[in-house]
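Q: What structure does this chain adopt?
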Amino acid sequence: MATFLYKVGRLAFRRRHYVALLWIALLTLAGVGAASAPAAGASSFSVPGTEAQKAFDLLEQRFPGMSADGATARVVFKAPAGEKLDSGANKATVEKTVKDLGDGSEVVSVADPFKGKAVSKDGTIAYASVKYKVSGMELKDASKDALKETAQQARASGLTVEVGGDALTATPETGSTEIIGIAIAAVVLVITFGSLLAAGFPLLTALIGVGIGVSTITALANALDLGTTTSTLAMMIGLAVGIDYALFIVSRYRAELAEGREREEAAGRAVGTAGSAVVFAGLTVVIALVGLAVVNIPMLTKMGVAAAGTVAIAVLIALTMIPALLGYAGKKIKPTGQKSKLLGGGRAKSAEKSARPNMGTRWASFVVRRPLAVLLLGVIGLGAAAIPAASLELGLPDDGSQPTSTTQRRAYDLLSEGFGPGFNGPLMVVVDAKDSKTPKADVTTVTDKIKALKDVTTVTPATFNKDGDTATITVVPDSKPSSVTTEDLVHGIRDAGAEVKADTDSSVLVTGTTAMNIDVSQKLNDALIPYLILVVGLAFLLLIVVFRSILVPLKAALGFLLSVMAALGAVVAVFQWGWLSGLMGVEETGPVMSMMPIFMVGVVFGLAMDYEVFLVTRMREAHVHGEKPSQAIVTGFRHSARVVTAAAVIMIAVFSGFISSSESMIKMIGFGLAIAVFFDAFVVRMAIVPAVLALLGQRAWWLPKWLNRILPNVDVEGEGLRKLDSKDSDPDEDRELVRA
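A:
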């Protein structure tokens, strides 16, 4: 591996014009494809195998014009203080608004609140339900604008008018701090390299890689039903790893220059050594992201595969375009320890300052002397941070989690005030009586059983289809949609349905947005352990090949579990308990997004293994070259601690930029990934890892002889490069590489 990548690096260095043109051509091609591709909305959402999805599919068959998964809007009216909605002027305004709402081409139906008994008992609050042909993700902007304009016109009459439902689903805004995150990354790179040019290379290549990845996703969005969230995730992950991978190769290139190597030789060796680590680090991220397919939620699978593709591009661009750019830069890139003149380079250092060990060396030496104390402190600290995770409650966000400044949240609050909190999450019960001889009697039995359950406020009369073999019943819970009580009610209705199924030939299914959210959460919970076993297991095998050790990969996996549990604890503390919620812009606390644990396991594991590979590979390299285990730890930190720290700060800055998003899901993901990287990089990899290696000593690198014989030798530490000499390099080496 190292020898092959060494040749790739030298080839890219010499043939830099072709390499640069190739990547620019790919970026242009992807950009043209994105610009010319038909616009696509957010991805359609389906969850195969769940009861809620089965009910949606059944409704599509039995109620052809119903548009079961179509968008809905609730236009909520509130009369001025001291007035009621059924008074002359107020009633006229509501009726005119209902008429205007029905004019849209995508509108299926509009329910008049006065005819549908949708007025509160005190007569001050009412709502009109609007049903659309397509989902909120597919609804045209013209329909959304018409909905907003109609509500605004009604407000002009003096009524309070707000709009809830999924019809106003909007593309989330990440805010200006995303740009600030990139700016922080630029500052960290300048400080790390002491050169504006060297700092610019990782940013440039990362932006090109993300540009190709996101443009490709945009170009294929319509054909593959990819949504806006897919490109957001790809950009988030691609930008972070793209900067990091390029950072490690540029840093190793400067270290090779400091050892006196020629620039082409230094580029080859940088790609051969650091590039090998990049390949395997990238593979762990790709495994984690593609492994999301285990959950069997199409939207999540597409997000994972698209983000994995962007990571693969980041790896390839780091291995080829970075050495090409280094070739263009020539002598402007200084060896390690030297700064550009613009940043104070060229000044003579005192002998005392030059001989002083760097911070990484001093820290590693301290850990090697006090490994047990450092290990206990790190484990206890992460354990304390993980305590809130024991109170983890999972759910999916609804309008109740929106900021109070939004019309959706104000409509949610008005409906709770007028009709009770459960009115915001009605359940739809579908009775399939096609095989029954007494369908109406069966539906009556189901209705009576539901009315007998606790926490039920309202049960509407059943509505049959034209054939009379399927009915729908709307159930309004007594509690809000995201509560545990509502979840228990859903399970109670399903248990009652099982009793009906046993006594008759009718099936009972519960669906609706609330039931779908509950089913998704359950599906994600059930998939977490298999996913964890698959991802950690594959990565464990991969790391055995990389490090040729059993205990080092095992330690890496256990350290990851510590960091991800601590990160989940922090997420619970902020988003569920409300700690520092004001600082994070969290206006409404509630259950943690059900996708969060499995998402964090996948993404954080991949990123955690990045630091493991980069840091420990340098230690193994020193150990393979003859150093004692304790000295190899110090050597690894001397060469890698500064750059790993910089990489972690950059990744934290990039992820933190998404905390300002208007979408609670992206805000939570940004915070969760940022805090997870902090815990993993600075506590696990910088403290626990060297402490464990120091305690294990030579045993850390133990591998059974039989396993050592059958494992492929990938040579990540670059042992094969010691046999090469730059003076004996073949000038036609690039042609040999092509033939190979």
